[in-house]
Design a protein that fits this description.
The chain is α/β, with parallel strands linked by helices and about 220 residues long. Helix content is about 30%, strand content about 20%. The chain contains five helices and six strands; from the N terminus they run βαβαβαβαββα.
Length: about 220
């Protein structure tokens, strides 16, 4: 194991159909838009020719739909891993910014008292721990090959920051995790020796506003 190279690609889901522009979080029923479906295909095409032997996904619909072209391309079944799910958030189903957004309501302000944990949702450390566990499972099951795990923006960012030794709290506006982007953890044995990042569908500068704080 000490000298075995394994790559775990962590893929963010594609664009979601969200006409009401709410923070959908873990709510059921949020599917990919037509653009999001095309993003999922482009992500699969980007990894075509790679040695993918394992595909896992968050249980949420948008992630499962993003995983389908990838699994189909490599003739694999999608393994649902609950640890890849979106981070919990007390504002699910609500607008965060803009007219009617929770940021404009004083009754919501106490929930922002501790951005380091954060106080409005699942602790960053908890997110990082479960994401790392899912990535390590993927590494072990694809040992000597490559794996794909489909997840969500904040969990992917927490995982990347954790393995790179960075603090977990951060400015959401500066996340490098666009829609359908691929963050790749390159393992040499048990150690992450490199983290790569690519955007098969291009950058999405208005991602945060459009997707309501990332998901």
């Amino acid at each position: 194991m000490a000298s075995t190279r394994t790559v775990v690609h962590v893929l963010r889901h594609g664009e979601v159909f969200n006409p009401n522009r709410v923070l959908y979080g873990r709510l059921p029923g949020y599917r990919l838009s037509e653009a999001g479906q095309a993003m999922a295909v482009r992500a699969a095409e980007h990894l075509s020719g790679r040695d993918i032997t394992y595909v896992a996904s968050s249980p949420l619909q948008r992630a499962q739909e993003t995983a389908r072209p990838m699994a189909a391309q490599f003739g694999l079944e999608i393994v649902t891993d609950d640890r890849l799910i979106e981070a919990g958030n007390v504002f699910e189903g609500k607008r965060v910014t803009g007219q009617g957004g929770v940021l404009k309501h004083p009754r919501s302000w106490p929930l922002f008292r501790n951005p380091l944990r954060p106080s409005w949702g699942e602790p960053y450390q908890q997110v990082a721990d479960r994401m790392l566990a899912a990535a390590l499972k993927a590494r072990d099951l694809a040992e000597g090959h490559e794996a794909v795990c489909v997840s969500h923006q904040l969990p992917i960012v927490c995982l990347r920051r954790y393995v790179q030794g960075q603090r977990l709290w951060h400015d959401p506006r500066k996340r490098q995790c666009s829609l359908a982007s691929i963050t790749s953890l390159v393992f040499q044995g048990d150690e992450v020796v490199r983290v790569d990042y690519v955007e098969p569908s291009g950058s999405t500068p208005n991602d945060l506003a459009r997707q309501q704080a990332g998901a």
